[in-house]
Amino acid sequence: MVCPKCGSRDIVLLPTNEYVCKKCGYKWPMPQPDYMWIETEVKKAKLFEKFIDAPVENCEELLAQLLKELDEKNAKLLAAKILMQRAERRKLTATELKKLYEDAERCLQ
């Protein structure tokens, strides 16, 4: 931690959640953590449970549904995860399995 005013590294944290520079006395608030990622992870877990057994069979349809709730990156990753989990749950022939894995790979592009 560096003082934004003088650059000193001699900093103290007060019980009021403020930093104080011992050199120049400048005070500034402790930044608050961003917990949005927790909400996103909970939403992804709920969507996984919702769509793991849904009748949606291909990446495009699944992505269209997930993009209503998530940003593009998270939707693609979750769609690929769902498709791969489906492939692992089912007893498929090698050809069918390959097709599902290819569809999952398309989701990541």
UniProtKB/TrEMBL annotation:
InterPro entries the UniProt entry points to: Znf_TFIIB
Show where the TFIIB-type domain sits: 1-40
Tree of life domain: Archaea
Coiled-coil residues: 56-90
- Tell me which UniProt keywords the record has, alphabetically: Coiled coil
* One Pfam family cited in the UniProt record for this chain: Zn_Ribbon_TF
* Identification of the protein by name: TFIIB-type domain-containing protein
Question: Which source organism does the UniProt entry give?
Answer: Pyrobaculum aerophilum (strain ATCC 51768 / DSM 7523 / JCM 9630 / CIP 104966 / NBRC 100827 / IM2)
Taxonomy of the source species: Archaea, Thermoproteota, Thermoprotei, Thermoproteales, Thermoproteaceae
